[in-house]
Amino acid sequence: MPVARDENGMTPPESGTLDQRQRRTRAALHAALERIIERLPYAQITISHLAEEAGIGRPTFYRHYPTVDALLIDRVAKDHTEQRQLAKRLADAGGDVTAALVTVTQFALERISARPKLYRALFDGSAGTNAVTLFREQLTDLLSHLPFPPNDLRNDNLDLSVGMMSGAVSGFLLVWMETGFKPPAGDAARLLVRMLNLGRVETAR
């Protein structure tokens, strides 16, 4: 799940810096977006819609997010935060890296399939955000917890490797959504990890 940024590339305040009232407001806005996107196309959702649905005023909305897009990306980032925490727990526990990558990937796919309209707005460009860029940030973060093996050739070209994988992930997910989330998340996660050759060593031939 991607890192939250608004249309100017800025990130909203970290959730850890928010007080309880601010957290409640953001949770209400996240929930409002989830409900409204089931009723309206993303492009038609306005700040007024969201404020009314969340039971707040427009000025309160603007104290948290500059745009609807920023709210969407922050909502998606919530899933990414939980994915990152899962990756860290699995990394700290040791064990098979490939199995851990499949578990983390399956977690992400299950979140996407649970909120398809939310993620479609991100993937199809409706939110004005480059999904490949966001996936690059996500993969870089994931690899900080579950890195390539030390002797893996991709470590010598990490930026290029992550860039290539980001484009592949974006395309994979878009087609997976268009085909009705088939195969199921668990099988799709294993397929994606295998296709990207994650958890295995790439050496010079």
Question: TL;DR of this structure?
Answer:
Pfam families: TetR_N. Helices cover about 65% and strands about 0% of the residues.
Q: What can you see in these coordinates?
A:
InterPro entries: Homeodomain-like_sf, HTH-type_TetR-like_transc_reg, HTH_TetR. It holds the Pfam family TetR_N. This is HTH-type transcriptional repressor FabR. It comes from Sphingomonas mucosissima. Residues 46-65 bind DNA. With 205 residues, the chain is mainly alpha-helical. It has two domains: 15-68, Arc Repressor Mutant, subunit A (Orthogonal Bundle), CATH 1.10.10; 76-195. 64% of the residues lie in helices and 0% in strands. The protein is built from nine helices and no strands. The protein has helices spanning 20-36, 47-54, 58-64, 68-93, 97-114, 116-123, 131-145, 158-178, 185-195. α4 (68-93) runs parallel beside α7 and α5 (97-114) packs across α9 (185-195). The chain starts with 19 loop residues before the first helix and ends in a 10-residue tail after the last helix. 28% of the residues are buried.
